[in-house]
Write a structure and sequence with these properties.
CATH topology of the largest domain: Carbamate kinase
Helix content: 25-40%
Number of helices: 8
Largest sheet: 8 strands, mixed
Number of domains: 2
Shape: globular
Radius of gyration: 17 Å
Number of strands: 16
């Protein structure tokens, strides 16, 4: 059976992806694995917002997004981050294509709470056929974490949450949530494999904090909805912490 792998990478990853990353991608492709990349871009968005005098405001760790903020987010993700990533893949001999919510209704979403977060959304539908079509052409889809509502409003989506939604709808076998640490550590010791229940306990007891919280939440959500293994790691060549049933 063909293995399906979703990899979430940060917005600065275009300059940080190692030769080993691309060698791993190529090995997986030779084994007939189908791969999806979901990219972030928070640093680029914040930098562009500063240039355009749009204040950066976080609510519960989520970037409050105005209509102007959505336009800036699109500029950063679709005008800078995604093209750079597609080019980086090309230079490393991996054929890829940039996709976004406007690509034949790829990602449909709804607002979380406009009063609290502005134009921030959650994905409730994925055009899986479009992704299948890209795979049939041996292309790696590189997807921006933006959704579009049924009435055409663009929505900002947390990249970890976007990757999780895509992994769920594509019935992925593996989800890699790449971060700047090699995995989840407790008292300095790396956790190699944990269940969603254990992950939730660590989160609720505040052993896991900060930027790891959305990753753990995403991992729990993904595993409970059928993704076999979720890896929290800093590279695809290292399994990191695996959340699995």
């Amino acid at each position: 059976m063909t293995k399906k792998i979703v990899i979430k990478i940060g917005g600065t990853a275009a300059t940080q992806l190692s030769p080993a990353f691309f060698e791993t991608i190529k090995i997986w492709q030779k084994q007939d694995a189908k791969i999806i990349i979901v990219h972030g871009g928070g640093n680029h968005i914040s930098s562009l917002m500063a240039q355009l005098n749009e204040p950066v405001q976080k609510v519960n760790g989520i970037r409050f997004t105005t209509q102007k903020g959505i336009e800036i987010t699109k500029m950063a993700l679709l005008g800078q981050v995604q093209p750079d990533l597609v080019e980086t893949f090309r230079l490393n001999s991996v054929a890829a294509i940039g996709l976004n919510a406007g690509s034949n209704q790829l990602l449909t979403g709804h607002m979380l709470d406009q009063d609290v977060y502005g134009y921030v959304g959650a994905i409730h539908q994925v055009n899986s056929q479009l992704i299948q079509n890209m795979w049939q052409q041996n292309l790696v889809p590189i997807i921006a974490p933006l959704a579009m509502s049924n009435d055409g409003q663009w929505l900002n989506v947390n990249a970890d949450h976007a990757a999780t939604a895509i992994a769920k709808y594509m019935q992925a076998d593996e989800l890699y949530l790449l971060t700047d640490v090699s995995g989840v550590k407790v008292s300095g010791n790396m956790l190699h494999k944990i269940t969603p229940q254990k992950a939730l306990e660590l989160q609720e007891s505040h052993v896991i904090t900060g930027g790891m919280v959305p990753k753990i939440s995403s991992a729990i959500h993904a595993v409970e909805r059928g993704v076999h293994n979720v890896h929290i790691t800093n590279t695809v060549t290292h399994p990191g912490t695996i959340i699995t049933l």
